[in-house]
Write a structure and sequence with these properties.
This protein is 55% helix and 0% strand. By secondary structure, the chain is mainly alpha-helical.
Length: 107
């Protein structure tokens, strides 16, 4: 799955990308924090869990739904429903622009 880096050209990339557009209630956009050591460490933990789950035969779609559910419930607990709704509303245009579309190299 996602081994070491998240980029549109990575042939092994999986869901990742940026995780936020909302900035209310102290919620930091992922773009602002993605260079920090803690963000990289967090991403690596998630990627390891993803690889373990899919390696155990769990469908990537089920891993994605579980990850989204977990992320949203934690964000609501930390920042409240209103901030999370703002985050979600900002994701639609980003998805439509292809920000989360992975381009795979063919070999």
């Amino acid at each position: 799955m996602l081994g070491h880096a998240v980029c549109k050209e990575d042939a092994h990339a999986r869901p990742g990308g940026s995780a936020g557009a909302a900035r209310g209630q102290g919620m930091l956009a992922f773009e602002q924090a993605e260079g920090s050591d803690e963000s990289v460490k967090a991403l690596n933990f998630i990627l390891e869990a993803w690889e373990e789950g899919t390696g155990s035969g769990i469908a990537p779609e089920l891993m994605a739904y579980a990850a989204l559910y977990t992320a949203l419930t934690d964000l609501v607990a930390a920042f409240g429903e209103e901030s999370v709704v703002s985050l979600i509303k900002g994701l639609g245009p980003r998805v439509e622009k292809g920000e989360f579309t992975l381009y795979r190299s063919r070999q």
